[in-house]
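Please review the protein record below. Let me know how this chain folds according to its tokens.
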Amino acid sequence: MPMFQAPYRAAIIGRTGRGDYGHGLDVAMLNQPKLTVVGVADDDPKGRAAAAKRLGVEHAYADYRELLDREKPQFVAVAPRWIDCHKEMILACVERGIHVFSEKPLAPTLADCDAIVTACERSHTKLAMAFQSRYSPRFERVKELIANGAIGEVLEFRGRGKEDRRGGGEDLMVLGSHIMDLIRGFQGDAAWCFARVTEAGQPIGKTQIRQGAEGLGLLAGDRVDAMFGFTANPAVAHFATSRPKQPGQRFGLQILGSKGRIDLGTGWVPPAYLLADPTWSGAEKGTKWVEITSDGVGKAETLGANSLPEANRLIVADLIQAVENDIQPRVSVYDGRASIEMILACYASQLRRGPVEMPLTERSHHPLEWLG
């Protein structure tokens, strides 16, 4: 049980112009029966004033450390979408015993992620990640269908990024983190990765390494093709992203089994469809795709639109419950780190020109630093 009682004090850290407030992580703290929002921090004056008005708070700070020390919140949303600031902001919170709701991805490097995990463990604080798809009732229905044999024996997973102008290394980090987390939601921890990262059809070299936008850290490649194996399940998972002339419409995950397939998108109410056909196409037998809703296969959807704010509010409620019961949130700091490890394993495999075992043994440097 926590050493404090509801209603708990909550605050938000944003950074206007450099990640802003993510995908509505600030307002996810509102309308929570067990939270009272007491302040916000943002080093941009206009952004700070707008956030204070939006959140209905009087206390707004340029320095987030001053916010933490003066307002003494028990829960904080680390909201910026840019991830170069995540480590410092999260550490400032957890070292003060404050529980965190963090925008994804967690951090640019495994060293940063390890530091965050260690700090959470040392301070006995909880961190929940903004991976909304894993909180969706449709995700749960898909898991149930697989467990009940709706597609037979699961043979493989196929995930792709958005494949827009960010296709390749940037897509791998920004959108690939969602797909990696979804795959882990079904398969558990990865045991190995075998990947090829290329630029214009050639293996990446030091001249292709670049600093990513939005504080993403080192990136490379306009195409990534990766395969993962898992400790608890023989089915492999593939992830790919490229930069075609026509932007992709394939962002999501395909789950392929001996009796059929399930296609699953992302979000609070993600697109989800079942095809009960072992050929995986439906063309020969005329098998129809059937929608999977929060209530089951072919049933009417009772939830609203695919709304990230609704999912974020559920994540915050889950974080509060995790703190109250001293358990991990559904998608915790360990999941945040694991998705980054799968992403960076792609570069490690390319550097080695072969498969790499996971967890990765080299964690102090980004794999691309060795290539550079």
About this structure: The chain has two domains: 8-133+310-330, 135-305+339-357. The mean pLDDT is 96.
